[in-house]
Amino acid sequence: MSSCDCVIILSVRDWEDRAVLARLKEKLQTEDGRLVLRIEQEEWKSLPSCLVQFSQVQEWQIHRTGLQKIPHFISSFQNLLVLDLSRNGVTEIPKQIGKLTRLKELLLSYNRVQFVPEELSCCESLERLELAMNRDLDQLPDQWLDMGGNCLQHLPEDIHRMEKLHTLWLQRNQLEKLPDNISRMESLDTLVLSSNRLRDIPPLMEDMYRLRFVNFRDNPLTLDVTLPSRKSKTEDDEDDREMFGREFMHMYIREARKRAYAVLNVHCAHR
């Protein structure tokens, strides 16, 4: 290939990049003081690398485009607060997602995500994670996920689709309730929920027979439940009861059920 041919090819690519940039620029808009990239119902199976020229964007709203992957250059978008790619064909979350320390919302419902990388736990500002209707989602790094020390307020309703997950760390978040489907996580044996905003424990968690260690410490639970002291005990036994709280969980659920029955009986007696 001659130098003349190379110049022509580079000129064509430069022209194509400019055309794509001009097209993307039309998708930028300001909403509620944020710079938003909004693409809806257009075919964009992949996003061009020239998009990094708009790295100041704070929100991606890309829906029904057939997008198949989150580009690795996503890490260049350090101002990104919301990444909403729901209703596409995304199959994986790249490790580079962990570089987005300001990201508050990651919405990937109705995609084809198969794997959640452990780097997601580095998104220290994350408040909302949605992975509903990703029917192939069953793989996690080493079957454990550490999302501790973030700002999560909700867990996905279909969290039970993570069938192989055996260890889940959710300490120091802002969770106010747990989805009932958490009780359907059949492989889960370790669940750490300390320092959240939980007010109750789902009754169905009583049936989580594989769950060996669970920690509800430092949550504003509605009921004040204290475990009865043991006649013969060791320091290690008491540490286990305090730290892992499986016995506490069962007692709390029984007490909640007992009080609910009592309220129901009082209500029936006054009818």
Automatic annotation (TrEMBL):
PROSITE patterns: LRR (PS51450). InterPro entries: Leu-rich_rpt, Leu-rich_rpt_typical-subtyp, LRR_dom_sf, LRR_domain-containing. It is found in: Cytoplasm, Myofibril, Sarcomere, M line. Transmembrane segments: none annotated. Keywords: Cytoplasm, Leucine-rich repeat, Muscle protein, Repeat. The keyword Cytoplasm applies. PANTHER family: LEUCINE RICH REPEAT CONTAINING 39, PTHR48051. It comes from the Eukaryota. The keyword Repeat applies. Component of the sarcomeric M-band which plays a role in myocyte response to biomechanical stress. May regulate expression of other M-band proteins via an SRF-dependent pathway. Important for normal contractile function in heart. One of its GO terms (cellular component) is M band. Its main location: cytoplasm. This is Leucine-rich repeat-containing protein 39.
